[in-house]
Design brief:
Structural class: alpha/beta
CATH architecture of the largest domain: 3-Layer(aba) Sandwich
CATH class of the largest domain: Alpha Beta
Order of helices and strands: HEEHEHEHEHEEEEHEHEHEEEHEH
Number of domains: 2
Helix content: 25-40%
Largest sheet: 8 strands, mixed
CATH topology of the largest domain: Rossmann fold
Radius of gyration: 26 Å
Bound molecules: adenosine-5'-triphosphate
Number of strands: 15
CATH superfamily of the largest domain: P-loop containing nucleotide triphosphate hydrolases
Distance between the termini: 67 Å
Number of helices: 10
Strand content: 15-25%
Length: 347
């Protein structure tokens, strides 16, 4: 048969939904009677919220029944202002990236089509910024083609604290990807309102902490999904990635037009796979043509922030992150230079 102490032990495991303290700490138990397994309680929560009362009732009842209670009846009341004050008041809401005083700069990375290296650029730009001493987050908003976790060799998943999602931290960069929330690499079919809701969750429910920059890897192209995401992003600055072939610039210019249409300032252009430099002879070859970056920057009236050569990242001894150019890689220097330009332009 259940006793008084068991009830107290259960209340210790149930939280006041607004104070984030357990019901024993908040002195929530105002009345208690136990008669032959029938438990009657009066519980005071910090706010008279019907939904939270119901959720609390269900949780307490289930736990008490597990302890042997035959029937549970709970009435609710509200803690007084003085009681709440004595408990330190309501905790301040954790700030979100969209809070009015948040100082995080959003840098969205876009491309006219897939496969030009947009995700590679997003990942390595994030590291470039982090190497300049900035606090950086990376949001893989390439909803349908998320590849950031694989590129960074991330195997763990975000954790949850105080009902907020904590991003996965990898080499000092905080990462959230759609890939963390789908099972077995299954395709994502969210559109329109669902997509907007999910993006909002990424901004509001993820505890990013105090970030200087959030780099966003956008879906490629200028179709519906890319447009949806563009229009749902808050004030952000955009970087457009292109390959060096002059015709590629026309395709990429459409992504630029979309940025302008959604009132996002264009920070500049990155020409990826710009040339191949032989590690043996130092000879340079323009494998994919020449001039795409200049053409695109001319069309969009902006600058070329950098030209990244064609080369796979050098594999590291102790870490697996196949898409990351680490410090000892000459391409990391190119990204450092781009990161510095981005910082200058933002400041
Ligand atoms: N400078 C580079 N040198 C060599 N390989 C590169 C370079 N940039 C990207 N790649 C490779 O090209 C492939 C496509 O890159 P990535 O996934 O970054 O492109 P993407 O534009 O994001 O594509 P999608 O939008 O379709 O996901 C990857 O295998 C990547 O490793």
């Amino acid at each position: 048969m259940i006793n008084h102490q068991q009830v107290l032990d259960v209340l210790k495991t149930v939280q006041d939904p607004f104070l984030h303290k357990n019901l024993l700490e908040t002195h929530a138990l105002k009345e208690i009677t136990i008669e032959e397994g029938h438990v009657q309680l009066m519980i005071a929560l910090s706010r008279p919220d019907r939904v939270k009362q119901m959720q609390t009732q269900v949780e307490i009842s289930a736990k008490l029944k597990e302890q042997g209670a035959e029937a549970v009846r709970i009435r609710f009341t509200v803690l007084s202002k003085e009681e709440i004050q004595r408990l330190g008041g309501f905790p301040e809401k954790m700030p979100t990236l969209l809070s009015p005083n948040a100082k995080t700069e959003f840098i969205a990375v876009a491309s006219g089509k897939g496969g030009v290296g947009k995700s590679t650029v997003s990942v390595n730009l994030a590291f470039g910024l982090a190497r300049q001493g900035k606090k950086v987050g990376l949001l893989d908003a390439d909803i349908y083609g998320f590849s950031v976790p694989d590129m960074m060799g991330i195997e763990n998943r975000p954790s949850v604290k105080n009902e907020r999602i904590l991003p996965v931290e990898r080499f000092g960069v905080k990462v959230i990807s759609m890939g963390f929330f789908v099972k077995d690499n299954s395709p994502v079919i969210w559109r329109g309102p669902m997509l907007g809701k999910m993006l909002n969750n990424f901004f509001n429910d993820v505890y990013w902490g105090d970030l200087d920059y959030l780099v966003l890897d956008l879906p490629p192209g200028t179709g519906d999904v890319a447009m949806d995401i563009h229009s749902k992003l808050p004030h952000s600055k955009e970087i457009i990635v292109t390959t060096p072939h002059p015709t590629a610039a026309f395709v990429a210019a459409r992504a630029g037009a979309m940025a302008i249409h959604t009132q996002h300032e264009i920070l500049g252009v990155i020409e990826n796979m710009a040339y191949y430099k032989s590690r043996k002879t130092g000879e340079v070859e323009y494998v994919f043509g020449k001039g795409g970056g200049d053409k695109l920057s001319g069309l969009l009236h902006t600058d070329v922030l950098g030209r990244i050569p064609l080369a796979q990242p050098q594999p590291q001894k102790d870490v697996f992150a196949p898409g990351v150019y680490f410090n000892d890689d000459p391409i990391a220097l190119v990204y450092n230079d781009i990161a510095q330009k981005v910082i200058e332009k933002c400041e």
